Amino acid sequence: MLYKVHTKQALPISRQEAWDFLSDPRNLERITPKDMGFKITSGGDKAMYPGQIIQYKVNPFPGFTTNWVTEIKQVDHLNFFIDSQLFGPYKLWHHEHFIHKIEGGVMMEDLVHYKLPLGFLGKMVHPYLVKPRLDEIFETRRKKMIELFGTIS
């Protein structure tokens, strides 16, 4: 089964400010829940480009540490970028990041399609373990972005 996360957040910043922050892999650590132990281990020290490989170490759930390897698939400067998991905790992870200009700032939009491993077992744990954790991750990001940039009135 293919699952989806779709979030939007208005921010009172320019498209360039949003791009500079969101397209820098090092900022992921700043907006990810601390208990995930998120650390970039390689590939995050360059400006984003198609084909870029970024490796992370992450604890998505207590007692479970994994390596996560993503590839930047597409980049349209100031508008969007797409990353996909090459290796990690998901069977499929495809994440589209959009920056739309709106009155007073930008609309940051995330669209993630993902599939879990382990077949039936993955489907069983999704509503109790995976979905709540993803909701928490994106809610933490929303709150951190407000702390960093404020909100549109």
Structure notes:
This protein is α+β, with helices and mostly antiparallel strands. It has a 7-stranded antiparallel beta sheet with strand order 1-7-6-5-4-3-2, with helices on one face. It is 28% helix and 43% strand. The mean pLDDT is 95. A hairpin with a 3-residue loop joins strand 4 (64-76) and strand 5 (80-87). It has 3 helices and 7 strands; from the N terminus they run E-H-H-E-E-E-E-E-E-H. This is Ligand-binding SRPBCC domain-containing protein. InterPro entries: START-like_dom_sf.
Describe what is shown at a glance.
By secondary structure, the protein is α+β, with helices and mostly antiparallel strands. It has three helices and seven strands. It has a seven-stranded antiparallel beta sheet with strand order 1-7-6-5-4-3-2, covered by helices on one side.
Any descriptors?
alpha+beta; 153 residues; Alpha-D-Glucose-1,6-Bisphosphate, Chain A, domain 4; 7 strands; START-like_dom_sf; Ligand-binding SRPBCC domain-containing protein
